[in-house]
Design brief:
- By secondary structure, this protein is mainly beta.
- It has one domain.
- Helix content is 10%, strand content 51%.
- It contains two helices and 19 strands.
- The strands form three sheets. Strands 2, 5, 6, 9, 10, 11, 15, 16, 18 and 19 form a ten-stranded mixed sheet that branches.
- Strand 18 and strand 19 form a beta hairpin.
Amino acid sequence: MKNLAKKLIVAAAVVSLTVGAAHAHRAWILPSATVVSGDNAWVTIDGAISNNLFFPDHRPMQIDAISITAPDGSSVKPVNATVGQYRTTFDLKLDQKGTYRIAQANSGLNASWKEGAETKRWRGTMAEYVAQGIDTKPGVELTLSSRRVETFVTNGAPSAITPTGKGLELVPVTHPNDLYSGEEITFKLTDNGKPAANVEVTVIAGGDRYREEAGEIVLKSAADGTVKLTLENAGMYWLEAESRGTASMEGKPVNSMSTYVAVLEVLPG
């Protein structure tokens, strides 16, 4: 009986961990194709935050927060946009040859402090932080957070992708629309334009809803921000990186947290 009880406890713990891992909410922007060609080329884009990749089951990504940058750097508007219960869908006409960047990026200041047993939270600008006296709260911690969720679509031959220099970003060494199974891929991570060293990167293949284990690949960036990996199977992949540190804004200490997410297609090698 004791052995049975131990086995049941262990089994329950494993199930608990599995359920917790499976229900982590992940943001993603998924194109119907990442490489197209022709003078009348279109793709359809889905954007969502979900428990599984790429199965919309939590909430949609807000269409107003999504930006599309054409190969020449101009902005493009989504077409036929619909925001549903679980996902946002729109079409994109690729009139130019080269690589389009579809992204949701945001940043902001957040503060937290204790008042008795209660944790108070605040969000706003540095000017508001000072004007409202939040900076005088005992034990207050200020965090500058930024997040970028994106994907890339190319019409014809891939073209250069210009970094914004804001937050954590992926700078292509291997172009994100030139990935093949069994071939080494090299990316470089930058944080506010500088090499992001020792950043943990997680890569997960889509369709984890149908696997017992997510099958995460966990890597760390080198001193120059580079990350190298080889993916043996073709398909759509979700990549996430997160960096934490400290900074100073207007003479005030600030914690910094940057998150980067990309959806990448790996074609058969």
